[in-house]
Every structure is written in C-alpha cells, then in structure tokens.
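We were asked to recover a plausible sequence for a given structure. The inputs and outputs are reproduced exactly as logged, with field labels preserved.

PROBLEM: sequence recovery
POSITIONS: 166
GIVEN STRUCTURE:
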C-alpha cells in the first residue's frame, strides 16, 4: 500500500513540477516541491523511505528539467535521509527547525546543481548564488513552512508519525 501511495505522490509531484509551477514563480524562481515533499516524507516515515523516495523523485524530476541527473538524485535522496534522521532524533519538530532545515537543504541542493554546471568565472558564481540559490532556498522554506502549517492545522502530526489511526 505504501508503494502505491508513494508512486502516486511521485507522479503527482512530477506532473505539478513540470506544468503548474512555471505559473507560480516569484521573480522567476519556482519552489522545489519535490525537495519539500521528500523532507516531509523523511520526517514522518523515516530515513529509509525518505532516501528511496528522494532518489526516485530526484531522478524523475531531473528527466523533465535541466538539472544534472546524478546531482538531483543525490541531493533529494540525501535530504530525505537526513530529514529522517532528524525526525528520529528530535522529540518535536517545530516550524522554526523545519524552515531552517529547508533553507539549508535547498541551498545545498542548488549549490550541488550550480557546482555540476561548473561556472567559468568567479563573477558568475556569485551572481548565481545571489540570484538563484538564496532566493530559491528562501522560497522553498516559505512553501515548506506553509505546508507544515496546513498539515499541522488539519492533522495531528504526532499520531501521523507514529502511524496511529485518527
């Protein structure tokens, strides 16, 4: 059953990423809903499921974008694994911790993509950091914080993480 649910989540996120998000961009920056979703899956389901969903989602999303295949897979898989470790080690994940983690994860993920493109001049690196990496990290954190607030206001996350009925 979990495989079917994760398959539907992956298919929906890839479809939303390729079609809808180009209309939701702010200053030509689109949120990386895959990264946010992998972070939530890692937090709620554990590091193994976060890693596997992150690898598959990174592979699927990189097929429809200009991102490097290996860089996207490794970045999203690592985010899912680390979010799962953090979720297991922390007693309560607060919105501040989640938003801070998403800023760091998004900045590192976009930094890996930037590094894989290998800019030639130093000026290009600083320009990309200032105009792409930092706004993307902030936008992902805002989207993640809004998703956390929406899930928190509708569901009891403690019960969801423990796998209990509502």
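RECOVERED SEQUENCE:
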């Amino acid at each position: 059953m979990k495989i079917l649910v994760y398959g539907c989540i992956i298919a929906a996120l890839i479809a939303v990423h390729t079609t809808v998000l180009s209309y939701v961009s702010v200053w030509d920056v689109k949120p990386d809903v895959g990264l946010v979703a992998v972070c939530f899956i890692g937090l709620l389901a554990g590091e193994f499921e976060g890693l596997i969903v992150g690898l598959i989602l990174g592979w699927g999303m990189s097929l429809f974008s200009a991102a490097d295949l290996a860089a996207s897979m490794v970045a999203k898989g690592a985010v899912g694994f680390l979010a799962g470790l953090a979720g297991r080690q922390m007693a309560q994940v607060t919105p501040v911790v989640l938003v801070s983690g998403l800023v760091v994860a998004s900045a590192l993920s976009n930094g890996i993509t930037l590094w894989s493109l290998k800019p030639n001049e130093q000026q290009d690196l600083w320009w990309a950091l200032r105009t792409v990496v930092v706004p993307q990290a902030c936008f992902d954190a805002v989207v993640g914080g809004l998703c956390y607030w929406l899930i928190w206001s509708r569901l009891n996350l403690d019960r969801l993480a423990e796998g209990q009925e509502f």
